[in-house]
Amino acid sequence: MTLLSTTEPLHLAHDAALVDLDGVAYRGPLPVPHAGAGLAAARDAGMRLVFVTNNASREPESVAAQLTGLDIPTEPDEVLTAAQAAARLLRDHVAVGSRVLVVGGPGLLTAVRNAGFQIVTSADDHPSAVVQGFSPDLGWTHLAEAAYAIQNGAVHIVSNLDATLPNERGLAPGNGSLVRVVTAATGTEPVSAGKPEPTMFHLAAARVDARHPLVIGDRLDTDLAGARAAHYPGLHVLTGVSTARDAVLAPTGHRPSYIGLDLRCLSQVHAAPRQDGDRWVCGTATATVTDGVLRVEDGPGGDPVDTLRAACAAAWDAVDAGRPLETGSVPDLVGDR
């Protein structure tokens, strides 16, 4: 398995982009550098956008307003939240109209209500399901109520299992960390609607009738794993959680199809590494794995992302062939410096 190539810019090779938010478009209240310009150029080229977020606490209108305020003009119907995906997944487990205990923010409450379910606030109301999503206001009382309901037989559905939530100060505990509190008390594993499950990507692609969608994300274990689960190509941008080094060491199911420094890469042609004897070459960069050691060389005047692409190809080829790769031999690469 290696990276894909294009003969035209990504925004022409794919008719829609399914774009993650945290770490791709913004970090907390701050925009990711070049995100607005990169997405504007993609829109101008005819690429349709759907912002796909594992955040279930906010309404699509609120997300759209934030993006618009960051110079990324967005309509509410261009936002698909994990709350909406969780509400859709509820229908596969309990009948419409059933009682549901919602543990989360306003976005999750609205999505579950709009899907036709009766919202309750206590395990004493005998809900058929508990739906849990992130909210900064959640406390012990809410998590305990969820645990009581699940112990009494309610199915546990969660918006996502992200352990962390990136913001302008660093990595904060995410929904997955709060879900672990409930599962520790109940011993019951939940059903997840969010990335890396494919549900959200299929819903987003269907919303804009996409034939050749591209998933864009910063996390290999959610965004890019979800792209593979949905059988869509994935673009890893180096503006968030997962680093260039992480990409080199990624297991098969987490590997991206394309790699770019930031969203400006949507306007670029993407070169794929090619094998030349025991070397992998991309642009002027080369990479080899010999006796378990990854060695990379930057060509004069070359693109540092090409160096990363060559390193990924050499490392993935070695691992897939059953040859050793010393993780300590993977050097700092673009975005890691």
Automatic annotation (TrEMBL):
Assigned GO CC terms: cytoplasm
Where does the GCN5-related N-acetyltransferase-like domain lie? 283-326
Classification via Pfam families: GNAT_like, Hydrolase_6, Hydrolase_like
Extract the GO molecular function terms from the UniProt entry: phosphatase activity
Q: Which UniProt keywords apply?
A: Hydrolase
Keyword Hydrolase belongs to the record: yes
NCBIfam families found in the cross-reference section? HAD-SF-IA-v1, HAD-SF-IIA
Name the chain's protein.
HAD family hydrolase
Instruction: Please give the organism.
Output: Cellulomonas bogoriensis 69B4 = DSM 16987
